[in-house]
């Protein structure tokens, strides 16, 4: 993987102008061993409940990026160390959480990329509430299943098509 989000923004400026390429606000912190990751998005919409997160990460990731619309909640974590290991072992490229993670030291040794708003020690609920493979809204940016996510040290991009 040799892309840089800065170069993609420069090379695809017209897509930024027409909205087929978007930049997430710079509010996400980086975790995991992969600072740079990309792949097609799989989407979840949940709120303070991570049962769907677990069941999704139990499936083959095939280089995809799991984008979790957690409603921006800062009251509970949606991804922890066990889920980081599960994502790594099942071939997920990364996880973007519009919410919190926990067990950050455990996630930081996983060979995946994770972006989240913050850490929080409290675990989530486990009722299974939420939706999978739907259009989600992450920090004001729409993400559809199959959109391409590009993340590196400079930011996170959402593209309607593969750019590299």
Structure description:
The chain is of the alpha/beta class and 164 residues long. The chain is built from five helices and twelve strands. The protein has helices at 5-11, 13-18, 51-57, 81-89, 104-107, and strands spanning 21-23, 29-31, 37-45, 65-69, 77-79, 94-101, 113-119, 131-132, 136-138, 141-143, 148-152, 155-159. Helix 3 (51-57) links the parallel strand 3 (37-45) and strand 4 (65-69). The longest helix is centred in the middle third of the chain and has 9 residues, at 81-89. The chain starts with a helix and ends in a 5-residue tail after the last strand. The model has no long low-confidence stretch (mean pLDDT 97).
- Report the biggest beta sheet as strand number plus sense, adding barrel if it closes: 10 strands, mixed
Task: Give the termini separation.
Answer: 9 Å
The level of helicity is 10-25%
Give unreliable regions as ranges: none
The structure class reads alpha/beta
Strand content: 25-35%
Overall mean confidence score, pLDDT: 97
Helices and strands, in order, run as HHEEEHEEHEHEEEEEE
Q: What overall geometry do the principal axes of the alpha carbons give? A: globular
Question: If you compute it from the alpha carbons, what radius of gyration comes out, rounded to the nearest whole angstrom?
Answer: 14 Å
Total beta strand runs: 12
Number of helical stretches of at least 4 residues:
5
